[in-house]
Design goal:
The structure is a single chain. The protein has 9 helices and 7 strands, in the order αααβαβαβαβαβαβαβ. By secondary structure, it is an alpha/beta fold. It has a 7-stranded mixed sheet, sandwiched between helices. β2, α5 and β3 form a beta-alpha-beta unit. The longest helix is centred in the C-terminal third of the chain and has 13 residues. The chain is globular. It starts with 8 loop residues before the first helix and ends in a 7-residue tail after the last strand. The chain binds S-adenosylmethionine. The site of S-adenosylmethionine has 20 residues, from α9.
Length: about 220
């Protein structure tokens, strides 16, 4: 998702209590920032924020951090968050590949909602479920890696199933038509858009034990 450049986007972000401008400095101490020891859930590619806002409202028992690589998109999310008085959400402006610079074994679950599908084979390495991203995610999870993914895109869904399986993830749940499955679901902007065009929403939940990490 690319929006036209929002003038002064950085300044707008920095004025919000929801925006963490120095996330590298918070590495290893995110629970201290939230001032509690509740599990931390991470949404990567949060877009305009409907999902993280809905989840944070429904689940005060968790903390949420949203990642978005474009400032102009994040501004739209911040506008919505600023109207709430939620204390369990923070957002940051980074690229997903840099997660390991920001978190250290602090994350319980990663949500990947309607990630860019990168349909051409030569671009599959850019998918957020490609091996190099899964390796980076390993560094941020606590003892177990948990990933939940939603998409309208068959190729991304199939590619993600294969990539996660080859990387050692075990599937807890798979839905090929989430909206008609009866499963509780907080919808995203893209989800509403694609469902209204007649696409079925695909969903998966997978986990993996994190192997012993070598201490330096
Ligand atoms: C197709 S949009 C989906 C937005 C939202 N999750 C939804 O479902 O409505 C994908 C979002 O992921 C962001 N994104 C893509 N690649 C990213 C990356 N490597 N790191 C962080 N954000 C990324 C894009 O800027 C865009 O906002």
């Amino acid at each position: 998702m690319r929006l036209r450049n929002v003038k002064g986007a950085r300044e707008i972000l920095e004025q919000s209590n929801f925006f963490v401008s120095n996330p590298e400095e918070v590495k290893g101490t995110w629970n201290r920032l939230f001032d509690n020891d509740k599990p931390i859930m991470l949404e990567i590619g949060m877009g305009k924020g409907d999902f993280i806002l809905g989840m944070a409202k429904s689940h005060p028992e968790f903390n949420y951090v949203g990642i978005e690589k474009y400032e102009s998109v994040l501004v739209r999310a911040i506008e919505k968050l600023d109207e709430s008085n939620l204390e369990n959400v923070k957002v940051i402006n980074i690229d997903a590949i840099d997660v390991e610079k920001i978190f250290d074994r602090e994350i319980t679950c990663i949500y990947l909602n309607f990630s860019d599908p990168w349909p051409k084979k030569k671009h599959h390495k850019r998918r957020l479920t490609y091996k190099k991203f899964l390796e980076a995610y390993d560094k941020v999870f606590k003892d177990y890696a948990n990933i939940e993914l939603k998409t309208d895109n068959d190729s991304l869904f199939e590619g993600s199933l294969i990539s996660l399986c080859e990387y050692g993830y075990i599937f807890d749940d798979i839905k090929l038509d989430l909206w008609n499955s009866g499963k509780e679901n907080v919808r995203t902007e893209y989800e509403n858009k694609f469902a209204s065009l007649g696409f079925k929403i695909k969903y998966l939940k997978a986990h993996k034990k994190i192997e012993e990490r070598n201490e330096i």
